[in-house]
Here is the input.
Amino acid sequence: NAGVTQTPKFRVLKTGQSMTLLCAQDMNHEYMYWYRQDPGMGLRLIHYSVGEGTTAKGEVPDGYNVSRLKKQNFLLGLESAAPSQTSVYFCASSFLDWRGGNERFFGPGTRLTVL
Amino acid sequence: GIQVEQSPPDLILQEGANSTLRCNFSDSVNNLQWFHQNPWGQLINLFYIPSGTKQNGRLSATTVATERYSLLYISSSQTTDSGVYFCAGEHGSGNTGKLIFGQGTTLQVKP
Here is the structure.
């Protein structure tokens, strides 16, 4: 199993450009998440999905959109990139086990710079 | 939302030393996890520990859910243990999606 993979690993954008980050998982997990990590800070939740076709806002959703058309994929879109969106983006997935536990598994991250 | 406080913020150890990292939560949490972010930026799952004690090699963790804290023990530290250690937890029942992270403890192990 590859686990959680993210594409691309690095990207440089100019202000106003758009792009999509792709997250894929092969563990058949129901839940998927997008986080961002800024220097000196922990991870903050952008958006998440509890199943195919459903999405919900996290702590810092402004400026981002997401889609979950397939169970194994979760896309994060930036319609008009801003320098404040320079960050490292992490995707994660999880499932509810028989005890109600919900352990997250993270991808390797995408480093995005907006000039 | 809940607040997650980690201590100490920074720690420097000599190789072979032991250490304890602490995570306090402002409210009850579920799905508590410990992660290690290595110098290459990868987030490695260390423990999923909503309660009780677990051990994995030189690392162990204890969560006392009723007192809203968790501890991560590193014994006989090695230079490869360097990096940032995060704890994270989720408030409420079911899957709210909102795993809240602490600010991290930055560990440097010197040879």
